[in-house]
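Input chain follows. Return structure tokens only.
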Amino acid sequence: MSDDSPQRGNDVRRITLDDNALLQTLVGQHDRNLVRVEQLMGVRIDSRGNQLAIAGASDSVAQASAAIGALYERLRRGQTVEAGDVDAAVRFAQVGGGAAAGDAVTIRTRKRVIQPRTPTQRDYVEAIRDRDLVFGLGPAGTGKTYLAVAMAVSMLTAGSVERIILSRPAVEAGERLGFLPGDLKDKVDPYLRPLYDALHDMLPADQIDKRLESGEIEVAPLAFMRGRTLAHAFVILDEAQNTTAMQMKMFLTRLGEGSRMVITGDLSQIDLPPGVPSGLRDAIDTLNGVEGVRFINFSDRDVVRHDLVARIVRAYDARDRRRAAGQPTT
């Protein structure tokens, strides 16, 4: 790939791509990948032969060029370029850290190779690798739980930990599960299903069943953690905003030798009874500044589900700000 950059201050940049087959894949069906870059970065991209011409504001042109270059390099390495990859390249280019910065951090599991798609996701994965206790905080759709489970599976299969323990508070039933129909597994599975879903994205089904049976992977409600010491394990507490302060302290103090712990939650979705403080909020206040603890804060810019999810998150955040300011919400 060659880059015929204009003089500084001009707003057109021409990129020559030397592999026509890769160029067609990069452009996408009906130019959809280029259209996506245009929409996200406010530029115009024209394709002629093996050359792309990018026009727009100087900063946007430079960032779009970096994003396209990163996508082209993905294809040269034999990787795919899908809609999420285009969005990721744009995000990394816009923060000035290099459009390919997310590609440098990879999580390898039995079923797929996973890469961060936002700068915050990259920081989150690096924090999990470097720290024993990490809090992933922010709205739905930002990959907090998915990336934590991916890291857990990666470390288990690499032999860095001996087991994975996944937990959630069963807050809707007050962790009094007796009145629900079925055996214990039937009672708790509805609350833990998102964790199982993430596991199935990382491991073949027979591997999950085998590891669940052997105890290498354990999925259990928070109430079952009391009195245990979780050593040589990767421990995840999901939906932690629905813990009480006492439950959170209990869980955090389960951390044993050779273990790593990730706490995920969204303080805008607390389902505790009125007047019951969130254990997640209490932990943030209590552990702020404690050595060895890292807090990663996600925002609507990190939502990697449907575009509409990010707009929904922003709409609710704006409503909450208006309420806090005493302004009308309609």
